[in-house]
Design goal:
Helix content: 25-40%
Shape: globular
Distance between the termini: 40 Å
Structural class: alpha/beta
Largest sheet: 8 strands, mixed
CATH architecture of one domain: 3-Layer(bba) Sandwich
Number of strands: 18
Low-confidence stretches: 1-5
Order of helices and strands: EHEEHEHEHEEHEEEEEHEEEHEEEHHH
Radius of gyration: 21 Å
């Protein structure tokens, strides 16, 4: 598979923009021979490299990323570390084992991150106090009833919230019902991946801005970069929606581009208008509804657009257009803050499959892959990354077994039908969204 060196664009928008500048590791140069290579230094690749280093302390693990750490999807999500997944539609008793399997994976990733954040003193606004699922109109209220049945059947700790409860907590009158999930965490995602990258074990060598341009499947595996060549015995691909660029998951995964906006830091008076919570996260129970954060540094973030954009970030002009949508949704929720400006907008790309599954396992002799999280990548990507390291090393764990049981990805037709199908697949999540957007 041959790629151009410039096929991995990025921009200066995202959660990383709120952080101090981080020194970038040196791009890989020269000829190298290593036992292990991990491609992709997002949540999955970082978890994988860390686990490989634990399993093989005397072997070098080479971790490569085409961009700077934090500039991919792992640093551009809304920062929800999910413990309990929501599935649209009514509770299906015959699916209860699958629900439990997916939540075991979520929980595994959440626990791993909790330990890593604590042990490495990663400053990433980590707050493990759960978050709120919200509903404002007919479709979302129907999903609220479904989600309540699901949580009760699985024995998940939760609190039902009415309109008054939500106003008291969030400072908005928009929502009619909600559910507070007891477990789960909120995080500054770019700060998290920066901290994970900067605390990797000594036998992991991280090289940013080091895109793999060509991969040969002969023995040993051969990777060509712009200014380097690598031979390796084992390769793990952790590039999520960009896996097709290396020849994997073609016609199985696409990238959906999301966009959101941040306000400036709120004053104490403005914060007081937002209710009793000083930090919170709210996810709409409608798949196309807005995702909201009040961060520990007193900013409101709102994300409510998703589209098929060729798996690319949005340009500045496109972001400005989407920000008008964010503005309308913001003022609908918080009219008392209509005077508060947005400081910047951001976009990010999530990997989605046609049937909502994840990808895990061996792709070719000595080549392994984990990815495709359909919007739940912080906890699930961590679990999948650690588990793929175990699997490639011959370890048997509950999480490996759970990941291997992921449903096969449904086929996505080639272009131009792919573009048409992907457009409608992403757009379908907004059906009936109403005021929840």
């Amino acid at each position: 598979m041959n790629l151009a060196h410039n096929e991995f664009p990025t921009d200066n928008h995202g959660w990383a923009e709120l952080l101090p500048e981080r020194p970038t590791s040196q791009a890989l140069q020269g000829t190298h021979r290593v036992p292990w290579v991990v491609v992709g230094a997002g949540i999955t690749g970082l978890a994988c490299a860390r686990r490989l280093a634990e399993l093989h302390p005397d072997e070098e693990i080479l971790l490569l990323d085409a961009r700077r750490v934090g500039q991919g999807a792992s640093g551009r999500n809304s920062g929800f570390v999910v413990a309990t997944s929501q599935f649209n539609g009514g509770f299906e008793l015959e699916q209860i084992d699958n629900y439990r399997r997916i939540n075991r994976i979520n929980q595994s990733g959440l626990e791993l991150l909790s330990v890593q954040v604590a042990e490495n003193a990663i400053e990433c606004q980590w707050r493990r106090e759960g978050f709120i699922h919200t509903a404002a109109d007919r479709v979302a209220l129907r999903e609220h009833a479904f989600f309540r049945c699901y949580l009760e059947a699985l024995g998940v700790s939760h609190t039902l919230l009415d309109e008054n409860d939500l106003h008291a907590r969030l400072g908005t009158d928009l929502y009619k019902a909600g559910i507070q999930i007891a477990d789960g965490a909120l995080v500054q995602p770019a700060a998290l991946v920066h901290g994970l990258a900067d605390s990797l074990p000594a036998n992991v060598s991280l090289h940013e801005q080091s895109a793999v341009l060509e991969l040969s499947h002969r023995k040993p595996l051969m990777l060509r970069l712009a200014n380097a060549q690598v031979e390796t015995d084992q390769l793990i691909v952790a590039t999520n929606y960009e896996a097709p660029s290396l020849g994997f998951l073609r016609s199985r995964i696409i990238g959906s581009t999301l966009a959101g906006s941040f306000t400036r830091a709120l004053t104490e008076t403005e914060l007081a208008s937002l209710g009793s919570l000083r930090e919170w996260g709210a996810i709409s129970l409608h798949s196309g509804g807005a995702t909201l954060r009040l961060t520990s540094d007193h900013r409101l973030s709102l994300r409510n657009t998703a589209e098929y954009h060729g798996s690319s970030l949005l340009s500045d002009s496109e972001l400005a257009c989407r920000q008008s949508i964010h503005r309308a949704a913001f003022e609908k929720r918080f009219p008392q803050l209509a005077h508060v400006p947005f400081e910047f907008a951001w976009s990010g790309v999530e990997g989605i499959s046609r049937n909502g599954t994840n990808f895990f396992g061996r792709q070719h002799q000595n080549i392994y892959l984990a990815g495709g999280y359909n919007g739940s990548g912080v906890s699930r990507g961590t679990a999948f990354g650690s588990a793929i390291a175990d699997y490639a090393s011959g370890e048997e764990t509950q999480t490996v077994s759970d990941c291997l049981e992921s449903e096969p990805g449904a086929w996505i037709p080639p272009r131009p039908l792919l573009d048409i199908g992907a457009f409608f697949k992403v757009r379908s999540r907004f059906y009936g969204v109403g005021v929840d957007r």
